[in-house]
Amino acid sequence: MTVSESFQHYVLPTYGRFPIVPVRGEGTRLWDETGKAYLDFCTGIAVCSLGHAHPRLTAAIREQAGTLLHVSNLYQIPQQAELARAIVTEHVELPGKVFFGNSGAEANDGLVKTARRFGHKRPQADGSPRFEVLTFNQSFHGRTLGGIAATGQDKVKEGFDPMLPGFRHLPFNDSAALETAIRPETVAILLEPIQGEGGVNVATPGFLATVAKLCKEHDLLLLLDEVQTGFGRCGEAMAWRTIAPALEPDGISWAKGMGGGVPIGAFWVSDRAIDADGTALSSLMGPGSHGSTYGGNPLVCAASLAVLDEIRESNLAHNARRQEQRIRAAIESWKLPVVTEVRGKGLLLGIGLDASKIAVPEGKTAALVVVTKLMELGLLVPPAGPSTFRLLPPLNVTDAEVDEALEKIRQVLSAF
Ligand code: PLP
C-alpha cells in the first residue's frame, strides 16, 4: 500500500494534502520519498524556526530523551522552570508567568480561561461576571471549540454549532468600530499583531494604540495571539514590538516556532496588579485552575530552550529583518503586474496576487495555482487565503537560499 493509499483508508480526511511525501530534512532543504529536493519556505507553517535537523536542537532532544522524557506536573521540572525564566526575562521582558501546553489552540483556550477568571474577579455593575472576548474578522485562533469560536472566519465554524458563547468579531484595524463595540459583559480583546492564516494582515500602530487605550478605559485584558508571529519570526522577539513597542499586553499565547518542531505551546499572564490590594493578574490562575498532562515536560522544554537560546544568541530576529528587506527589494524590482503587494514583517511575508491575471481551475484559488507551480519547481510555500502565498523560511535562512527561492518565484510569477 502506498502512503497516499494508507491516508485514504486510515486517516481522517480533514486536510487537503499535496501529493508529496517528505522524508528527510537538513537546514532549509527537504527531500521527498523520490529523492526530489525542495527549498522549504513553509517550515511546517512557521514551526521549524531553525530549519530541519539543526545540530543544537537535535543534540538537546537526544540528550533529554536519553535522560528523562516525561514526568508529571505533580513534580518540579527544572527544564520547564528554566524555559519559563528565559521566556519571561529574555523574550517578553515584562513580569509575568507562563503555563505550558501542547499547541496554539490550547494556549488560546488558556488565555480565554484567564479572561473568564478576570471577569469573575472584576464583574459587571450588577455583580454578574464579564465574559465576552472581542476578536477580529480574518483572525485565526485554532481548531478547538474555543479556538473556532474565537476565530473570525465562518469556514472553521461550519457544521459545528452551537458555538461556545462569549465571542464577537469586529473588523480588523477599524478603531472606530472598536470604540463603540464594548458592552458591560466585555472582558478582553484578543488579536494577532499580524494575522497569519487570514492573509498576512499587519495591525496598524493606531489600531493597537486604540486597543490599548480601550483596555485601560474599560478594564479589559489585552491578549495577543503570537502563535505564528512570536520568537523572532517578525524581526523582534515579539511581533507587537515591531508595531507598538510600548504596548504592555496582559496575556500572550505562543506555539509553532518556539519548539522548532516539537509540539509545545504556552501562554503568559502578566503579574500586574488588578486591584488596590495588589492582586496579581497571574495569581487568578491558581492551583487546580488549569492543567495539561504533557504540558511542559522535560523533553519539549529542553528542545524549546535550545531553540529560543539559538534564536537569541545568533540574533536570528535581525536576520529575519534583513532578509525581509532583501525580499521586498527584489520583488519590487521585478515590477510584475500579478503581484499586488508584499505584506507582513520579517520572515512572515505574504505576497498578494491579482487573481484576474491567473487562470484558476474550478475549485482552486489563485494562491493554490501559484503554490503548486512553485512546488513543481522545488520551492515549498503555504497559501494564506485565496490570493496570497506566504514566505516562512527558517529564521537562519541564508542569502543564497533566499536568492534561489526568489529566482523560482520570479520564474513562476513572470508567466502570468
Ligand atoms: N493562532 C494562530 C495565530 C495560528 O496561526 C494558529 C495556527 O495556525 C493557531 C493559533 C493554532 O495553533 P495550533 O494549530 O498549534 O493549535
Structure report:
There is one protein chain. With 416 residues, the chain is of the alpha/beta class. The chain has two domains: 152 residues, Alpha-Beta Complex (Aspartate Aminotransferase, domain 1), CATH 3.90.1150.10; 256 residues, 3-Layer(aba) Sandwich (Aspartate Aminotransferase, domain 2). It contains 13 helices and 16 strands. The strands form four sheets. A seven-stranded mixed β-sheet has the order 4-12-11-10-7-5-6, with helices on both faces. The protein has a four-stranded mixed β-sheet with strand order 1-2-3-15. The site of pyridoxal-5'-phosphate (PLP) has 16 residues, from helix 5.
Distance between the termini: 39 Å
- Characterize the main sheet: 7 strands, mixed
Please provide the count of β strands. Answer: 16
Given helix and strand content, the structural type is alpha/beta
Give the strand content: 15-25%
Average pLDDT level: 98
CATH class of the largest domain: Alpha Beta
Heteromolecules bound: pyridoxal-5'-phosphate
Overall number of structural domains? 2
> Which residue ranges are poorly predicted, with pLDDT under 50 across at least 5 consecutive positions?
none
CATH topology of the largest domain: Aspartate Aminotransferase, domain 2
What is the CATH homology-level superfamily of the largest domain?
Answer: Type I PLP-dependent aspartate aminotransferase-like (Major domain)
Helix proportion: 25-40%
Could you say what the CATH architecture of the largest domain is?
3-Layer(aba) Sandwich
